[in-house]
Amino acid sequence: MSRILIVEDEAHLAQGLRFNFEAEGHSVHITERGEEALTRLVKNREDFDALVLDVMLPGKDGFSVARELREAKNYIPLLMLTARGRPEDVLKGFESGADDYLAKPFNLAILIARIEGLLRRKNWSRITNSATGGHARPDADSQDSFRFGDKIIDFQNLQLRSGSNIVQLTVMESDLLRYLIRNAGHPVSRKAILQEVWNLHQDTNTRAIDNFIVRLRRYIEPKPSKPRYLLTVRGLGYQFLLNPEH
To answer: What pTM was estimated for this model as a whole?
Structure first.
């Protein structure tokens, strides 16, 4: 049985989600305030397996809650609910640390399927960690891990390792890295990234992608201000180099 925390101030919606998740065999807890969610998850370190987080909350909003969770190194699988489906809002949610999102009104079956997918990812990570002693498989050709330079990206466990240093990635950071690596040696546009990585096909400010690139450079570049692996292609987007010349 998985424990799910729902942070939603619309009581009828929260209770409807509780009823349906409990029908699927999960244990559900509800709060209407972001501050209480942070207390339970960060201060009290309560063990939950997934978080459904509304953006529009009284007091601290969902973006702030997600950001503070990730800053506290709490990587609970997080699905964000937003009353607006604008690409800018979706990207803001991802930048805050959300793993997935749905715009209201949503299809209940889709929300349940999304949460089940996040739960499967977490359970698989537990199995993988147990089997490998918490270490990524250093196989450059593996679908689940990739090595370049002195770094290993463990896509299954959402970790980037460099020696003894471990950076925990969000799902969106991991997916962006995977996409760039699959297209290594070829420039990819910001628009292509929005469509292929985040499935956003509406017109939006593609410069929002730049915030993710800055963060990834901090993780993978020896000198982020002078990138060697993740280059800017002026007027287009970005290019990942597997074997930079210098």
So the answer is: 0.69
